[in-house]
Specification:
By secondary structure, the chain is an all-alpha fold. The protein contains six helices and no strands. The longest helix has 18 residues. About 5% of the residues have low confidence.
């Protein structure tokens, strides 16, 4: 088992970010990354966090993204031994989405300690 895990990790190390995204099925046209030029200063944790947080907040406004998240929960629950997994995680997802929609990017980054 350890050999299989190590081999899988080595495979992951050799994949480009785009190939990784495609391999795990995380790439979707509903989610488009911001151009690199939209970030203020590279290395400024607060600014970087705010740019990423704003993309997340904007993406959550898209119903298709929320559907993708719910589909991912279904896939995750197929391997997790949690009773009522889908209902439980759907409830958490709804609470997290509601919270994120009430915050702006600066408040979110301050909340997690990056600003």
């Amino acid at each position: 088992m350890k050999a299989i895990i190590n081999e899988s990790l080595m495979d992951l190390d050799n994949l480009s970010p785009d190939a990784m995204c495609n391999k795990i099925g995380a790439c979707h046209p509903a989610i488009t990354p911001a151009p690199v030029s939209s970030f203020n200063k590279v290395g400024d944790e607060c600014d970087d966090c705010q740019a990423i947080a704003q993309q997340i907040i904007d993406a959550l406004e898209n119903e298709e993204v929320q559907t993708l998240l719910k589909d991912a929960i279904g896939e995750l629950c197929s391997i997790l031994p949690i009773p009522d997994c889908i209902a439980t995680l759907d409830g958490y997802l709804a609470q997290i989405v509601s919270l994120l929609k009430t915050l702006d990017a600066k408040a979110l980054c301050t909340l997690i300690g990056l600003c």
